[in-house]
Amino acid sequence: MKTSLPAKLLQALSPWRNAPAWHIAFSGGLDSTVLLHLLADLANTETLPPLSAVHVHHGLQAAADAWPAHCQSICNALGVPLRVMRVQVQPGASLERAARDARYQAFTEVTGAGQVLLTGQHRDDQAETLLFRLLRGAGVRGLAAIPAQRPLAGGYLVRPLLDVPREALEAYAHEHQLKWIEDPSNADPRFSRNYLRHRVFPALTARWPQAVANLGRTAEHLSEAQGLLDELAQLDLRAAGQPSPFPWLHLPSLALAPLCELSDARQRNALRHWLTPLTRLPDSGHWAGWHSLRDAKGDAQPLWRLADGEVHRCGQRIWWLPTTGSEFSDAAVSWPDPQNPLELPGNGQLKLIGEAPEGPLQIRYRQGGEIIEVPGRGRRDLKRLLNESGLPGFVRGRLPLLYQGQQLLGAPSLAGLWRAPSDDWHLHWMPQTCDQGLS
């Protein structure tokens, strides 16, 4: 027996029935109009979370100026509150991607803790996405195409119509005499997805009528395969996730040795999983940077540059350093009142705990050749002490040093394994957190 569209929608949304709210991404097009109508109709007979609609106005074409009013009239008729959000689309190589980024940033602002944002992508969209990414040479994660659900802000993005063919949505819309917007840009074959939709898929389905359904099923298989790869990555990262010897340095890091025991393919799989929340992933040609970093000599300190930061190797550990707008300054900073914490430009905060030495005091950064007095060991070369401590090289240039005139009095006690220079006081440095990064 064929399941009705409302029953199929309710089944898809059953895990989210207790969410605080459901927001419908409402462009005014066919897909979102059907989704909104279905949910508004179901709310008359079912106990659903509070419904609201969100229309994102990109301002990319003159015709779009009339769409918020159209969406408002539909929502008024259905008794659903509407929020219109105007966004700025950043110029770039791909207008489609820039508009999508702006749209999802707006959705992020709307979706509160535990709330659900619902979008109207359907089975034909899934097939187009799979073929589009296949032609771009995507890996398994990309070929898994559109996920039915994923985290969004503090809640979730859910696509409850992903198993529904477009023709079923059209039939529902005509049956209920719905009116929707036809975006003129959807007919422009210069956009890749439109080219696939209007030129490629008609030819495919003429020869293979089940092409769309079969591609959707392939995406499900690939999504399952990606789930298995994710489970394997979690196992491998657990072995490499042994605690850092510098717990105060709040940056993601991994032990290198457990990774090196894996095959190249498993290394890439584990690193993709680790890097996914941190940066855009490298394409196939950029993995040579990982091999160079991994295979460098033990005393080298190589780095691998990625889109949103760098992976550094220090000894037998790799560290992630995000790119940030925070500018670190290595200029000297006076510390007229060491009883109060000192804010270091782009470098966190420094506290002096205990009885401060006589001033005037100043914070400087390494220039090379520094000598420091270590109780019980005499005057020692700072570079050698840092080498003994194993402190990562990317931190050493940021290490705040306390000077009295030309005399180096001390460095933060957390930076090395040697004793503080005085029992009367010691320095406590709090670097910037991982969210701020170390630029």
TrEMBL record:
Known EC number: 6.3.4.19
Residue span, Lysidine-tRNA(Ile) synthetase C-terminal domain: 361-429
Keywords tagged on the record: ATP-binding, Cytoplasm, Ligase, Nucleotide-binding, tRNA processing
Subcellular location(s) per record: Cytoplasm
Gene3D superfamilies named in the record: 1.20.59.20, HUPs (3.40.50.620)
Top-level taxon in the UniProt lineage: Bacteria
Binding site for ATP: 27-32
Cytoplasm among keywords: yes
Swiss-Prot/TrEMBL catalytic activity: cytidine(34) in tRNA(Ile2) + L-lysine + ATP = lysidine(34) in tRNA(Ile2) + AMP + diphosphate + H(+)
Top enzyme class: ligase
GO molecular function, one term: tRNA(Ile)-lysidine synthase activity
UniProt-listed SUPFAM superfamilies: Adenine nucleotide alpha hydrolases-like, MesJ substrate recognition domain-like, PheT/TilS domain
Keyword presence, ATP-binding: yes
UniProt cross-references to HAMAP family, sorted A to Z: tRNA_Ile_lys_synt
Function: Ligates lysine onto the cytidine present at position 34 of the AUA codon-specific tRNA(Ile) that contains the anticodon CAU, in an ATP-dependent manner. Cytidine is converted to lysidine, thus changing the amino acid specificity of the tRNA from methionine to isoleucine.
Stored PANTHER family: TRNA(ILE)-LYSIDINE SYNTHASE-RELATED
Family: Belongs to the tRNA(Ile)-lysidine synthase family.
Listed NCBIfam families: lysidine_TilS_C, lysidine_TilS_N
Comment block on domains: The N-terminal region contains the highly conserved SGGXDS motif, predicted to be a P-loop motif involved in ATP binding.
Protein name: tRNA(Ile)-lysidine synthase
Source organism of this protein record: Pseudomonas pergaminensis
Lineage: Bacteria, Pseudomonadati, Pseudomonadota, Gammaproteobacteria, Pseudomonadales
Gene name in the database record: tilS
